[in-house]
Amino acid sequence: MKLRIDPERCQGHGRCYDLAPGVFTADDEGYGQVIGDGTVPQDQEHPARLAVSNCPERAIDPL
Ligand code: F3S
Known about the structure:
Layout: E1 3-5, H1 15-19, E2 24-26, E3 32-34, H2 45-54, E4 60-62
Antiparallel strand pairs: 1-4, 2-3
Residues 5, 10-16, 31-32, 55, 57, 59-60 line the site of FE3-S4 cluster (F3S).
């Protein structure tokens, strides 16, 4: 699984990096960013899916 965050939709709610800190991080202003190229390690798939379904802006998309 590979994910991206749409910077147009992300409003910095921070649920992605709270729920899946192995997959997402925050930029200097608190907007979410994928770590690396967005490839989700196998042991991070569950938290990654939680993050996708908990983003209030639906800003996290599969690649
Ligand atoms: Fe942005 Fe959604 Fe994360 S709004 S900071 S991608 S929870």
